[in-house]
Structure of unspecific monooxygenase:
Amino acid sequence: MDPILVLGFSVFCLLFLSLWRWSSGREKLPPGPTPLPIIGNILQINFKQMSKSLANFSKVYGPIFTLYLGMKPIVVLHGYEAIKEALVDYGEEFSGRGKSAMSEKINIGLGIVFSNGKYWKEMRRFSLMTLRNFGMGKRSIEDRVQEEASCLVEELRKTNGSPCDPTFILSCAPSNVICSIIFHNRFDYKDQNFHVLMKRFNENFRILGSPWMQICNIFPAIIDYFPGSHNRVLKNISEMRTYVLEKVKEHQASLDINNPRDFIDCFLIKMEEEKHNQESVFTLESLLVTVSDLFAAGTETTGTTLRYALLLLMKHPDVTAKLQEEIDRVIGRHRMPCMQDRSNMPYMDAVLHETQRYIDLVPAGVRRSVTRDIKFRNYLIPKGTTIFPSLSSVLNDNKEFPNPEKFDPGHFLDDSGNFKKSDYFMAFSSGKRICVGEGLARMELFLFLTTILQHFDLKSAVDPKDIDTSPVANGFTSLPHKYQMCFIPV
């Protein structure tokens, strides 16, 4: 028989077998739109408005449904009840981190954001313990945030009330707090290395949230063989890791095992303690990835939230006026805000929660996966299946938050004007994979925003009614449009 015919017949059989196995595996999964061979449901998804696409599917298929991104099934959880049941009630089973081609390329299964199994549990436990030892959740870290808030105010004064893009400055402040924990030092806002690092963080956060990146994750061959912005991400990551490695070498040269100065020192000491353990997760490569995870997570998410908050406050000057009145009444103009003030500032607390709810920073949540075969609501979800918990569906629930498309601090206030908690506030996710830095992020948002409003009036470079608060892209992340503003000293 002609070799070409044999080859063609073999390829056809393999493709047929693959499609048959793919089709038969769908029967036990939750229902969903019929996928096309190879490409799955990607033609039915608007990657620029991912959360809206998921909401439309849920109207047809209910709170649990299956999509195919390429050949891989994704089980989507939509709505508070389904997400709470999975992430909290079945917390261990849904505690895996879903894999994506880009995350595997960047983190190679290491660190604390995209790792899994025993490695993840050990690294998360160590990281939480170490961060707490260096003040996270304690008074000492509040002192650091207050000091950085003062530096932030001084930097904003240098703008002299002229129009400026606040992106860089607002990223520097939270980054310096996490730097003090990781590297035992902060950067001057004029430091050129700092400028380069902030630029890379901001660029990566923007690219990783783009529709193009979702396509790269569906068709991994693109990452290795085609040009595109994904290559810029990989280059930025490589350069940031090189910088972290330089810092690690400096720490190794001056390490005192009896007097650890920061996170890197503690990790190096742990590496030394376990150097004879061939199964140890504490390796130099793990250190580089974990530090990069903490550095990036502690910088860009809080910086982006602050940038969005200021945009919303310029759009709603009535809200800003109420905040400044509360600040004047509770703190005054001359005392540094502290965390004790928050309990006496329900309106500020409500505004911060509403900002995080409204901006919906990570609409589909960070991918999860199930750690074992599990029967969930009468469906069999195989071990390793990727899960999308649609946090957007919870943060925009119209029963819990009337008119969710509207920015309204009243969503978190009762009839007496007191702060009202909501179980639907899942801006930091929920369950065993809840954000490690939630407490620090909440502290930073309160102290930074309160301090800014204590010292400045906010003025938009355009008429407030022309301010666009819609996100640039609502794929993996929601980012505000670039804007200019003025900080007017009061």
User: Anything to note?
Assistant: The chain has 18 helices and nine strands. The mean pLDDT is 90. The radius of gyration is 24 Å.
